Amino acid sequence: MRDVTVQRAGVPVLRGVDWRVDVADRWVILGPNGSGKTTLLQVAGARLWPTAGTVEILGARLGTVDVRTLRPRVALVSGSVTRQLRADLAARDVVVSGRHGALETWWNRYTEKDWEKADALLALGGVGDLGDRPFGVISEGERQQVLLARALMSDPELLLLDEPFAGLDLGARERLLVRLTAVAADPASPPTVLVTHHCEEIPLGFTHGGLVSGGRLVASGPLPEVVTSARVSACFGVAVTVGCGDGRWWSRAV
């Protein structure tokens, strides 16, 4: 992104953002509610056009490419996807439908290898026994594992995760962190961007950080240089101490 601005009803939501994600990067984007994090992810996923500036995604510039060919190359895990999926759809069907970015399995045909891959991804997320259960009745933590499996089903070239830890209890959060740590460590995984509110939700192996405040990307770069007490305090408007031990981050009020 170069000098990207997004306005809604004349109000700037993003302001002059310059940002680059490289092939091997694993990014975490932190910032308070309403700061523009989700909008940033929507632009990165070719789901939203900027009002001004230049956006290039996977070698294609927005405005010069048919986004119908670009969007399937970008996997997005967000609450908007959850709301679009039919509640009585089996978890296994939710995952395999991600092969074509569909919402129903009857929209496309799937091979035996597709179904085997869906089962394997569920197993990697620790929810392999939930394949036949309706998506709408499994727990929030299980649902996030299913959505991550769905996102990986298409072998995406870019993986975007919008607040996947929202609403999770301690156990579900830690299980998802373990899974995302494995994804980050896999050299075959695509560049990944995770949006969250909490330093404790940064998985091991993530390499870069960005802080968003008031629609601006106020800091970005290698994780240890960005996620500091001074910078996080300024971003959230509250004095906090930030630390890291054994690869896990934490923050607490001063």
Description:
The chain is α/β, with parallel strands linked by helices. The strands form 4 sheets. A 6-stranded mixed β-sheet has the order 7-8-9-3-10-11, sandwiched between helices. Strands 2-1-4 form a 3-stranded antiparallel β-sheet, with no helix packed on it. It has a two-stranded antiparallel sheet with strand order 5-6. A hairpin with a 2-residue loop joins β5 and β6. The protein is globular and about 50 Å long.
Secondary structure elements and pairings:
Elements lengths: L1 E7 L2 E7 L8 E5 L6 H8 L7 E3 L1 E2 L2 E2 L5 H4 L3 E4 L1 H6 L6 H7 L14 H13 L15 H14 L4 E5 L7 H16 L6 E5 L11 E6 L2 E7 H4 L2 H8 L3 E6 L2 E6 L1
Parallel strand pairs: 3-9, 3-10, 7-8, 8-9
Antiparallel strand pairs: 1-2, 1-4, 5-6, 10-11, 12-13
Radius of gyration: 18 Å
Give a short account of the largest sheet: 6 strands, mixed
Helix-residue proportion: 25-40%
What's the rounded overall pLDDT mean?
A: 94
Helix-strand sequence: EEEHEEEHEHHHHEHEEEHHEE
Could you tell me the strand content as a percent range? 25-35%
Span between termini: 35 Å
Going by helix content, strand content and strand pairing, the class is alpha/beta
Number of helices: 9
